[in-house]
């Protein structure tokens, strides 16, 4: 068994292969020259934590890999797949034979096509190395300009503001996180950023980057010039599909897999941020998720299917984001629902439910301090998984426990 990519997904898959009973060799190949680590802390504690706690959380120690009999090849990329010979070809020329191979190559930060980008200074945030460079630049008073108000841009802005930087966020769309979250939640987050002194400007584009007398300048549409110490682009991610394309596998907004996470080659699977898959809870719509839990769940599911389990992947999408003292949680897909129902709890927290035209619950989203929404979102996730169509009055009524709705839902 060969796993390409030692991120969240690939590492979980390698361990699952062993736990599910595979006794033959397992090789985990990672292009980064470090032990596998978690990416979510990169825009959170790695940027804001004390100097002695700024490393991202390790996914596992080297000893755990050795104990599980997983051969970990770090700092080498798989550059080709010889599908006829069943060989993975490494950047150092090595060839590793496989019976089944998993592509867990993740995604890369989308590069910004900006005039003058060669003036230098545009950073991205995807890897440990990126985060450590940025951490060093988040000094009190530093002028940090963030292009893009998606999750990564906003988490970074919150971290920079917490470190005392002067932060500006430029977003082309009329509101932050335009596609990913319900409008009311995006507004609450935007308010929190502004309250913390972040200059969040929406409906505005950047024109070019220049350097004059050694000063980096960001020119905005309309001509305004912003002096910058650091410019960071958070303009989305693109799936790492180059290897799959070179190997002749089907690609469609990510490596195209079927419900069992198998690619167009039955001996090659793909999972995590790099793949698009049909979701049975959303009418078989093909989606690609960039979410930590999905990477874990798909890694494990792909591993079992590589061993012949043959199970469709149907987990409810789940995502969280931490910004300042607020945590946002979303279960399901917010862009699928037609009707929104709001439940206002006695503590003032609002849970937003999205329903389809058939009355089915398709998403639940909420924002609050700390972990205050976790339980309700977890229950909503179970309702979504059961394809429940709760009465809107009951959903809106905080006196009706979600647990009671779950008891009435099909099992
Ligand atoms: C800064 C940041 C913050 C995030 N915060 C959150 C959050 O708060 N909540 C949330 O739900 N999600 C969050 N995410 C998303 C989450 O981290 C990802 O969904 C998850 O890491 C995806 O895991 P993956 O294994 O599919 O891909 P990745 O983590 O991208 O790992 C893929 C690995 O494969 C390697 N690789 C690629 N090609 C090759 C090759 N040819 N050969 C060998 N190795 C290769 C790459 O170097 C990389 O190490 C965040 C992501 C980032 C970047």
TrEMBL record:
Gene source species: Streptomyces vastus
InterPro entries on file: FAD-oxidoreductase/Apoptosis, FAD/NAD-bd_sf, FAD/NAD-binding_dom, FAD/NAD-linked_Rdtase_dimer_sf, Reductase_C
Annotated Reductase C-terminal domain residues: 318-406
Domain FAD/NAD(P)-binding: 2-299
Cofactor: FAD
Keywords: FAD, Flavoprotein, Oxidoreductase
Protein transport in keyword set: no
UniProt cross-references to SUPFAM superfamilies, sorted A to Z: FAD/NAD(P)-binding domain, FAD/NAD-linked reductases, dimerisation (C-terminal) domain
UniProt-listed Gene3D superfamilies: 3.30.390.30, FAD/NAD(P)-binding domain (3.50.50.60)
Designated name of the protein: FAD-dependent oxidoreductase
